[in-house]
Amino acid sequence: MAIDLEVALSAEPTVREASWTDRDVMLYQLGLGAGVNALDPAELTWVYEKGLKVLPTFAMVAGQGVSAGVLPAASMSMPGIDIDLRKILHGGQSLTLHAPIPSTGAARISTRIADVWDKGKAAVIVLETAAEDLDGNPLWTTGMQIWARGEGGFGGSAGPEVVAGVPDRAPDKVLTSSTSTSQALVYRLSGDMNPLHADPSFAKMAGFDAPILHGLASYGIVCKAVVDGILDGDPTRVKNYSVRFAGSLFPGESITTSVWQDGNTLTLAATCPERENSPVLTHATMEIN
Ligand SMILES: C/C=C/C(=O)SCCNC(=O)CCNC(=O)[C@H](O)C(C)(C)COP(=O)(O)OP(=O)(O)OC[C@H]1O[C@@H](n2cnc3c(N)ncnc32)[C@H](O)[C@@H]1OP(=O)(O)O
Fold first, then answer.
1. 0.95 surpassed by complex ipTM
2. What is the pTM for the complete model shown?
């Protein structure tokens, strides 16, 4: 059986120690397209070691990049779960920050399988991660939803009902981000080596015309657009950020992010303008300071 719910939910959390330097941060932020206009002093602060700023979404790759030594092979195997890599997509992501992320640092990161939802045509594997610094101070927590096509129907719960929606008014701000055709090839060096994002023949076997951009790249690109466009360039103002990956993006396409602000809550909707504004991120919210 590809998913053994009992084994998956009773598995001990895996704990790893991660460390990173400003080089990992710069490579990650270059992988999001930062620095394209490097003559702009504000843009340089994302990609240059002097005064380097760290996007909160760096949490998703901390300790997994080139300076971790060996880039991990892509796989989808954990206790009670063994799924063909071609069947999985990143379905959703949330992140809560408990402290600003330093540009050089270390963390103890604990990951557990929190739940597996049965969506009939698919299973959604919910992974929860908690990171603390080496003195035990909380740094961040995350929730990742992995969509496993064809793995539903095992008689599990469908999970909570989540209501989508954006306010019934024009957005307060619309932000535009571009990506390059090599975006995924740079982004993957921060740790996610899934061939779906690089290898045309693998992408075809997974049902796509061409390699698609990592969901977490879109996640970071939209976070950066909001930090630059709404939060005066200050990444420490992001308290939490949650999205559903509603549609794939191909490297080279752009992202239009509509933002509605109600006090400290932002509602976001990201679409691809080159494909009739087809949805990229939905169910997207950000709490800010
Ligand atoms: C390892 C890979 C890494 C990557 O980075 S991959 C790249 C990033 N990710 C993507 O490109 C995925 C983009 N999203 C999609 O293509 C689609 O979007 C999905 C295939 C994930 C789902 O679409 P559909 O098959 O049409 O499902 P439905 O009919 O919209 O929904 C069926 C049920 O599933 C729930 N659901 C849909 N999306 C998600 C999600 N992302 N997380 C959790 N639940 C989801 C719905 O609500 C509903 O539920 P209810 O039947 O109970 O009403």
1. yes
2. 0.96
